[in-house]
């Protein structure tokens, strides 16, 4: 049996904190330990108590660092790892000028295979252990990514994008071909080891009603697959959808009519929604995914977290590489803090760290497996060092509480703060 004891300061959430005072929402153990056995968290508690259960287990001492569940990134694009930092465009021009040409290269299986490991390396070095990923429209891109994730025993959700109009031939499929390719990929990869499939119509600008219906058919045939798409990111995009679907009640209706809504649906962006759309997202349990670095970089708009949550929408927070500018969920939470501040909200570090771990796991319906340090769950972990840089050390000299320390990590930590990442019980960075 592969067994190891990790010693450090443990932080894991039980539920979403109601506010800065809600210290009952998490478990914090100052001299804590996790007993890892065969990729699972077999025991958690005070070091002495856990060590007594496995006195022979080798100990890795991460003190004084914090040990948290690995970060979860519920919206990221595999073929955009070379698109990050493309200058001067808003959404539709950015797609046409930079993104579609980059994604066209993934028609070549050798290119897709060459990029899969660098993509997963970037996730892990930033402490992200699970992601929901859009691949290119080519089945071979999803094949390459699933194969690489399987070799690393990562929990990963991914799908090939479906896009049959308003895009260049090199990335365009057809309703039938996208159905057939997605179906074959589901058969091959969904539920294999730690992998899951996400049915991925890109958005209603690049899908005909026939293709959205094909995606809906896949969703009803494979109800335990995730679904992911984009909605209401940019005003020109929304106007285009209204032109392309003159009979639809609104943008959301193009997905609703196809039978795509529900708790398995991850709706990226959700910035400029209408009242009916918000109500239907809440009623169907579909998830709204906030992508702050992307929303600011592309000048798309400001996410209304408070309004959506008041309406009963479950939210998630994600990088959206390569519209997003950082692979780090810590940087994403920093930018999220600033974007929400422009709406008069203040994202408290307890809420922020909950969001990137248990909150995103909840949005993915995976809290029984990932997102906490609960016994019996999978041992995907990130070890964070609040003293990682000289600037952080200076700031930490004046931090007295756990909340202050977490906020230093949220705002200043980025990649520097990731001291180690564990996947399936094994250290990988
Ligand atoms: N809308 C449709 N496709 C995309 C994409 O790749 N990135 C972003 N940010 N928005 C999109
Ligand atoms: Zn996206």
From TrEMBL:
Enzymatic reactions: guanine + H2O + H(+) = xanthine + NH4(+)
**Gene3D superfamilies referenced in this protein's UniProt entry, alphabetically:** Metal-dependent hydrolases, Urease, subunit C, domain 1
List the record's Gene Ontology CC terms alphabetically: cytosol
* Entry cofactors: Zn(2+)
Keywords, in A-Z order:
Hydrolase, Metal-binding, Zinc
Claim: Thylakoid is one of the keywords in the record? no
A Pfam family this chain is assigned to: Amidohydro_1
What domain of life does the native source organism fall in? Bacteria
Sorted alphabetically, the Gene Ontology BP terms of this entry are: guanine catabolic process
Cofactor details (free text): Binds 1 zinc ion per subunit.
Q: Which InterPro entries match?
A: Amidohydro-rel, Guanine_deaminase, Metal-dep_hydrolase_composite, Metal_Hydrolase, Metallo-dep_hydrolases, MQNX/HUTI_composite_N
* Pathways per UniProt: Purine metabolism; guanine degradation; xanthine from guanine: step 1/1
Which EC numbers characterise this protein's activity in its record? 3.5.4.3
Outline the extent of the Aminodeoxyfutalosine deaminase/Imidazolonepropionase-like composite domain. 32-57
* Example of a GO MF term: zinc ion binding
Where in the numbering of this chain does the Amidohydrolase-related domain appear?
Answer: 67-428
Task: Give the family this protein belongs to, as stated in its UniProt record.
Answer: Belongs to the metallo-dependent hydrolases superfamily. ATZ/TRZ family.
Q: Which purpose does this protein serve, as stated in its record?
A: Catalyzes the hydrolytic deamination of guanine, producing xanthine and ammonia.
What name appears for this protein in its UniProt entry?
Answer: Guanine deaminase
Species whose genome carries this gene: Rhodosalinus halophilus
UniProt lists the gene as: guaD
